[in-house]
Design brief:
7 helices; mainly alpha; 241 residues
Length: 241
């Protein structure tokens, strides 16, 4: 199916309205199961104790911070290259969601770092690059607000998104490229996960819950933006008539 099939806002809105209740239901179910398994079933770590349970929010939020920015960059590229009318809208709608996930990752990382490292923050390669990611999200949203012309705003924001994407692999491989306090990957590894299944399954369920939440909020924000554009168009038509 062509990416232009959903270029029609009415067709997209109708499909999104069907998907959104299901994705919201899946989000709630996965969150309940994932949090229950992570907080009450998964064992405490032999070194970190119960503080390791922060992982079940921190790690999926960090994954989603990178996923949302990757989605934003891809949508921006589609908008720039193929002029898809909903691509820039999707990128704009995803930015606040990604910024929230990035903030959650930084906040929970600080909470986790205090008992483990003895400090709330260090200028670690991973932490610093994630902080830069948050600034990229904020800068992207600020560009949309600063430029009145929607097409110029979309183009400027898309260029920033694509330039900023270089930070995504830096975040991913920072623990391999530099000496860092942050532990290396224990799930996505060439030789398989090094984390025990009792902790891996709640972690994956929380990751799926966050992904379903992203879909739900993305569709909601896109539908809201389309409705706002329709209202503005009607007001302009009434003013000109």
């Amino acid at each position: 199916m062509s990416i232009h099939y959903f270029a029609n806002p009415t067709r997209f809105t109708r499909l999104a309205g069907r998907i959104q209740p299901w994705s919201a239901g899946v989000t709630g179910l996965l969150l309940v199961v994932g949090l229950y398994l992570g907080l009450f079933v998964a064992p405490a770590d032999y070194q970190q104790g119960d503080s390791v349970r922060i992982m079940f929010v921190h790690v999926p939020a960090a994954w989603m911070a990178l996923f949302c920015y990757t989605f934003l960059a891809v949508a921006s590229a589609v908008g720039l290259i193929w002029k898809h009318p909903l691509a820039d809208l999707a990128a704009k709608a995803s930015a606040p969601i990604g910024a929230c996930f990035t903030f959650i990752a930084l906040a929970t990382g600080s909470l986790w770092g205090k008992p483990m490292w003895g400090t709330w923050w260090v200028w670690d390669a991973r932490l610093t690059s994630v902080l830069i990611l948050l600034f990229l999200y904020l800068g992207y949203m600020a560009l949309w607000q600063a430029i009145e012309d929607a097409q110029k705003a979309a183009r400027a924001a898309a260029i920033l998104a694509l330039v900023g994407f270089v930070n995504v692999p830096i975040i991913k491989f920072s623990v391999d490229w530099w000496n860092t306090l942050h532990q290396p990957s224990s799930v996505i590894r060439m030789d398989g996960p090094s984390i025990h299944a009792s902790m891996l399954w709640p972690l994956l369920l929380m990751a799926l819950a966050f992904k379903a939440y992203f879909i739900t909020m993305l569709l909601a924000r896109m539908r809201m933006e389309l409705n706002l554009r329709r209202i503005r168009a009607l007001r302009l038509a009434e003013r000109d008539s």
